[in-house]
Every structure is written in structure tokens, then in C-alpha cells.
Amino acid sequence: MILPQEFTDYTRRLAGDDLYRILCAALSEEPPVSVRLNEQKCRMAGLSSDVLSLPHADGGVPWCRSAVYLSERPSFTYDPLLHAGLYYVQEASSMFLEQAIRRYVTGPVAALDLCAAPGGKSTHARALLSEGSLLVSNEPIRSRAQVLAENIAKWGHPGCIVTQNYPKDFTRFASLFDVVIADVPCSGEGMFRKDAGAMEEWSTANVELCRNRQREILADVWPALRPGGLLIYSTCTYNDKENEENIDWIADELGASVLPLPVEDDWLVEGRLPRGTSESRVENRSVYHFLPGRTRGEGFFLAVLRKNGGEESMSVVCDNPEKQEKPRSGKAKKGRVAPPTVPNECLSWVCKSENYEFLATTDGRLSAFPRAHVSVYTRLKEYLTVLHAGIPVAELKGRDWIPSHALALSTERAGGAFPMVELGQEQAVAYLRRETLTLPSDAPRGYVLLVFRGAALGFVKNVGNRANNLYPAEWRIRSSHISPFCLWTTDGCVHP
Which domains does the chain have, with CATH numbers? Predict the structure, then answer.
């Protein structure tokens, strides 16, 4: 790998000769492959959530209890259990987020993942947060936000909202969030061996541009973090301009204290790099660098800060109520069509339905949202673009309420609400390609839930001679290549 000369000179000064040689050698090697299990869904499907027992395991990720390295990179696309949300393919270093949440987040919280696409940190955070917590996952870019919403739906937890907004749009929600996760856009040095484009675009000017943009992002979202709340800041880059300098800036200018995290010696995580270029460095502020060649993963940086100020109850208020913008939805207009009446059958599709507020829109979409957070959701929806919230339950088409695909993937779908048909690997992949299926002759007519190895894949409508495939068209597998794989089998394939 031929690295930009400016990067070589800068990083050698930053890390020192010995550490730089280790890093350079690692950048010429293949990156490790790692996955993180959705333990709740594994239990529901009756599959082992013991990561080290998986046939393709090559050691556990030491800083993440539910993650494992794989011996090679398989064709994940053709594993139905990936599409069912039983695991997430994620870079191992970024899973260090777990240490921050386990150490400092106790009890139910309202959390914001500010730059969340494609969803690795959001699904990880949602798995770690206490029940009763609310997670808002945000992504400004529409195409990436759609992918984020898809991955959140596959993960299946009801306490999630996905939004598509810029950080400044959260400024008005003063002190709403107990935790803000900010994996900010960066120069991408830590991704050089996985993304050639990141290396081609790198320059010292771009590093400076990224540092300034990161500060704008943090200043925009800072009012939304309550006093005493946590900011978990991360990048996938090495330089101290985007890392140490920004941590010092947050602490000194925005007002926060930097918190330490538990790190085992054998993880080989670096603190502040030996020879930084910053003019002012506070050496006792704890930061964490993951460097290829030292840790088994890609380049990654993380620090945890607590916002200065006393404890404050969580509330949704505007910075200046007299100058707040009008909600984008506006007031109800005369003659607006009332939401349709929802049959009780749809309510029975959700476990413990009494814990949810069922919300029907005028265009015939029904969702279930946790009652404990309805007021927060209602406020957010007035000002933000919401792509996903709670459990999308059904959609009215004509006179029929069609169960939502997200309901099939939800961990709160009521057991026994729909008849189920188990598919083999070939049929499961055909379903994920949105092909027409023929179910067994004894399969009941109507909406049927298809499962693979006990895990829900989605719905079909069985009309007898065929089953109409209801898998979302935008999610379908488009490749015609077939390379069967299943994470829980030795040879990768599940045979009928």
C-alpha cells in the first residue's frame, strides 16, 4: 500500500517510529472480519448466542461480549439469518462503545446516536441500554438514512426512532438526551485498507476541514445534551487534530470532564499517542486509540465526556419558546380526513399491547409506540423527519390491513398471531429475492409468516396456487450469484 507522503510524515511524527512501523505493516494485511450477535433474537429462535461456539469463530472480540471474529469473510448476503436480524457485521474496534455504555449508563435513558448510518453503533447501543430506554438514531443523508432505518427494523427493538436531520435540528430540544453518541464524519485514516477512496481523498487540508466540521456538529447538538449527560465521541482516524484536540476543545470550550474507561492490558489499546502535534495537550485526559497491528481491528478513536452542570430532569423544551419555529406539520386543517378505525385484530399482533400507544395516520399506516415515550416521540415528529418509530404494525390497502414487514422482524410480535411455514435455505434466499413461492398444500390461506431456522423472515399472502411475496422491494437481494451461507452451520449451508 502506497500511503500519501503527507500522511506518512504526519503520522510518523504523531505515533513515533516504532508504532508507525507496526501500523504500516498491518495496513498491507487483510482486515479481520467480525460480527455481533443479536442475543435476544438468537434466544427467540433457539440458536446459540455463545459466540465462541459458532462454527466459523476465530476468537471473541475481548471488549464486546456478544461479538466474534470469523476465520474468513463469507458471502453474508446469502445468509437468511443476517436478513432476519440475528447478527450484524461490524468492525471490531468500533464495538469498544460497549465499554462506555456498560461503565457509565445505568437505568433507562434517552439516547441520541447523531451520525448513525449504517447502524452498527445504534444496534449495539440498543442491545446494551436498559429496558425502558429510548434511542433516537439520526442520519442527515437520505440514502444512508434509509439503510439505517432498514437495519434498525431488522434489529427488532421497539424503543427506537430513526430520523433524517442535520445536527442543528436538535438544538431546539434543550436537555432532552441523557446520552449523545457522536461518531462524527472524519478523514477516514483508519479505513485505508478497507476503502481505497478514503486514502485517495486524504490531505492535511481535508483533516483541517473535518476538524472544523466536527466542532460545528458538536456545538449544534450540545444544547440537547442535559447537564451531567454523557457524550461518547468517536472517529475512525488517527490524527490528533480530529481526536485529542477536539476532546480538549469540548472539555475547555463547551464545558465537560473527560472520563476514564476500563481497558485490559492485553487489548493493546493506546492512550494519547506518544508524540502529538497539538500545541496544548492535557496529558491526564483519557482517550483510546485502536491501531491496526496493535489491536485486532481497524483504526478507531473514542473518548467519553460528561457535560458540566448538575443533574436535571429529562424534558423536551425549546431554547427560547417565544422564538420557536412552527412545527412542520402545522395545525390541523379543516376538512382533514380522520385516521381510519383500526380493528382489534391488529392490536393483538403486538405482545403486551397495553404497553403501547397505537397510532394510525390518515394515509392508513399503523404503528405501536411505547407509552412511556409517546410525548417525546410526538414532539420530535413535529420538527424532525421520522423514517421509523416503534413497531410499524400494518398498512391499510383497500379494505385490508396488511401486516408490516417490520412487525415480522420485531421482537414484540405476538407469538401465534400468524401461521408459520419453515423454509429451507434455497426457498429462503428465493423469498429474499422477492420471487414468487409455492407453500405446502396444507399451509393456511391468508397472511403467513415465513421462518428460517426458527427466525422470522417476513410475510407472504397465500392464495392457494401461489404465495404473493410481501418482502420489501427495496430490500431484496439483487445479485443472481448464489453462495449459500449460514453463520450457525459448519459448511456454511443449510440443507433442506
Answer: 5-30+90-307 (3.40.50.150), 344-374+391-409 (no CATH), 420-475 (2.30.130.60)
User: Do residues 365 and 358 touch, judged by C-beta distance below 8 A?
Assistant: no
Q: Is 64 exposed, middle or buried (0-12, 13-18, 19+ CB in 10 A)?
A: buried
Cα-flanking dihedrals φ and ψ of residue 423, to 5°?
-105, 150
pLDDT digits (tens, 9 = 90+) for 359-375: 999 899 999 999 999 99
Between CA 55 and CA 80 the distance in angstroms is: 17
pLDDT in tens, 371-421: 999 999 999 999 999 999 999 999 999 989 999 999 999 999 999 999 999
Whether the Cβ atoms of residue 69 and residue 58 lie closer than 8 Å to each other = yes
Residue 39 CA to residue 51 CA, distance in Å, equals 10
